[in-house]
Amino acid sequence: MKKVLSVLLTVAILLSLALMPAEALTYSKPRILGDINNDEEIEADDATFLLRSLVGIPLPFELDGAADVDEDGSVTVLDVTFLQRHLIGVSQKLNIGDFVYYWPFDKSSAIIDEGTFSEHLSISRICLDHFYATPILPLPTEYKIYGKLSGDWEVGDHIYVTFDNALIDVENDLVECDLIDISPSDFVPDPFVEYKPVIYLYPEEKKDVEVKLDIDGSFLYTYPEYKDGWNITAAPDGTLTDNSGKTYPYLFWEAKLNTEYDFSSGFCVKGEDTEAFLRDKLAYMGLNNKETEDFIGFWLGFMKKNPYNVISFQTSAYTDAAKLSISPQPDTEIRVFMAWYGSETAVDIPEQNLTPAHRSGFTAVEWGGRMCR
Length: 373
Fold this sequence. Notes:
3 domains; 33% strand; Type 1 dockerin domain; single chain; 5-stranded mixed β-barrel; CATH 2.40.50.110; 6 helices; alpha+beta
């Protein structure tokens, strides 16, 4: 039956090629993979536009990353096929409907290293013949690893990867390499470290911003380097640019703070339910989709295999130990810090009352966490 539907869909697309009127379209980031005409929906029109382009019929817009449905670096008839299969409900290990994964790799200045390396990484996106990953330890490098993953692996899994033939874009902190071997990572977070507090800035118009932290403790790592504060130019889309012209998605710091976290209230969540719980609570506290994905991408791999996770989102215990100052002052400031620990059994804990956040004007967002036991 699905084959019949696929044939019928192809025929319908071909018949509509000459009938579909052109329309003026413009593109803006972020783009959705498979949404060819940028109307924020994936439908038969998208397959039609893509097929029209491939047979040489001019479109009223330029194809971009959204058209590379299988994310192999080129737009071919296979992308039309995969999009058709998606439209009739055939399951595929593709990221159709997710945001386009922009990979600004500069091969012209990349360094080649033919050695063999191993890293503890977290899977951030899976494609047909490659996958993306970031260090479990919160460092800015991102990896594009060529090699097909088995169906046993999924986004958020922590892995120990051996690779070679590394092509390193030092300027953008990107690495392309070939997969040799992959196994589960045995890395465990240090229970005395505040991991990956990251700060996003979204002014209403591009402006220079100064960010300072006054912490009761000691920094372990900052990126970009913290020199009595960060002085950057922030754009409305969240892009941060330093004085040298280098861009960053956020400001990052890691530290050991001298504070005791409050577990007088919180939540006890089954490991298998942790992802859904975090998505719900993070949205309630004001994080957008990208920030939520970043948060979950870092923490879920440590949490999902625990029988239970005891979670408490910190207020003054954290903010008093890490005072944040931003100039000019944001209209909205959101700071989410999760203290948590795994448990073999359910823990009876009073439910925490969280404060909803509503973003308006110049918005600053920070998230981080600590595994406490």
